[in-house]
Structure formats: C-alpha cells, structure tokens
Amino acid sequence: MTKEEAEFRAAEATRIRSVYLDMDGVIADFDAGWRRRLGAVAGMQPFIDRYDRLYEGRKRPWRFWEQLSMTDFQFWSQLEDREFWAGLPWTGDGREIYSALCDLFGESNIWLLTAPIPDPECYAGKFEWVRRHLPNMKDRLITTGHKRLLARPDRLLVDDSDDHTVQWSIAGGRAVRIPRPWNSLHALAGSYSALTVPDWFRIAGLAA
Ligand SMILES: [Mg+2]
Fold it and tell me: How far, in Å, from the CA of 172 to the mean position of ligand 1?
C-alpha cells in the first residue's frame, strides 16, 4: 500500500457518513417554550424568576422543574398537546447549526433524532414542527429516546444532552455537544458571539 493509499484509507475510516441532529434544545427552543407555557399558569412566574436568579451564571439542572417545585407529572402534563411542540420557536442559532451541518456533510446525510415524551400529541407536534420549518426533512425524522442504538463510528450525533452524547460515544459513535446553559459546556454557552457554529465542529475535530 502506498502512503497515499494508507492516508486515503485512514481518512475514509474516520469519515462521517451521516449526521443525527437533535431537536429540543438544539434547533427547537424548548427552553423558550416551557417558559411561555408555565408563565401563563397563574402564580407560576415568581417561581420561574426565582429559578433564573438562583442559576444565573451557573450550570442549570437538567430536571429544572424540580426547582420550580413541580413533580414530573405536574410539569410534563402541562406539555401534552400538539401545538406546544409544533409551536416551539427556532433556537437563536438553530438555523445556523442546520445550515453549517448541510455545508459540512450535505443535507441528504442529515437525519433528525429526537426523544418525544410518551404522549401521541408530542409525536404529532414534533412532526408538525418539521413540516413547518424543515419540510425537506419530514421523512427523515427518527423518534426515540434510545439514541445510542443508532451510534456507529461513521455517525455523528449533534445534541445538547450530556447523557445522550456520552452514551453515543460509549456506543462507538462521534458526538458534538452544543453548549447550552444546562450542560457541561455551559461556560461556553454565553460566548456565542465569539464562537461560531463551524468553530464548534472544528473544536470537535470534525471540520477543517
Ligand atoms: Mg435536546
């Protein structure tokens, strides 16, 4: 084998062939959505304000509703309707993330991978969100909370969850964790203006 062949094979072995893009917290603004929904519940806004003060400049908990004195049931049952999920706004950098992935890997190699809550309206609402905002992707939506089952060395997960990205990597895939106030990269989440989306992929060694 020549040196060029060896280099070509090494590059091929590490080439990413498909990308699995999370929705909530990456391109769909779940954080804005729950604030809007709970803020409309009588008496709830002071709890949200107190939570924001408590976690200003600190990593926010994944199970933030506990800080709002809500049980799992009390919180999630507020979100069991189609329009909650279908009506989530884009995140501030969601379009940038999507177009950076299209540029780097090609739109036909991208899939949406999202973990719905166990409610049929959530499944329908997520599909509706894709139909409204990314109609090219409407037959490329994969719904499961068991994301790691899809991990392979040539597959990239782009997600905001510490758990999902760690499990994906352990299962043999490659992952980019998008910095958000509720994950281990929270310190970077405030420096969006300094770090562009392609920078994140370069940091992860996935783009030149
Ligand atoms: Mg997410």
Answer: 20
Taking only the tens place, the pLDDT of each residue in 82-102 is 999 999 999 999 998 999 899
Say yes or no to pLDDT of 156 above 90. yes
Q: Please tell me the distance between residue 189's alpha carbon and the centre of ligand 1 in angstroms.
A: 15
Q: How far is the CA of 168 from the centre of ligand 1 (A)?
A: 13
Cα separation, 80 vs 147, whole angstroms? 22
Token pair recorded at residue 127: 């599909």
Distance, in Å, from the CA atom of 164 to the CA atom of 150, rounded to the nearest integer, reads 11
What is the distance in A from the centroid of ligand 1 to the CA of 91? 11
CA 76 to each of CA 23, 73, 105: distance values in angstroms, whole numbers, following the listed order: 17, 5, 35
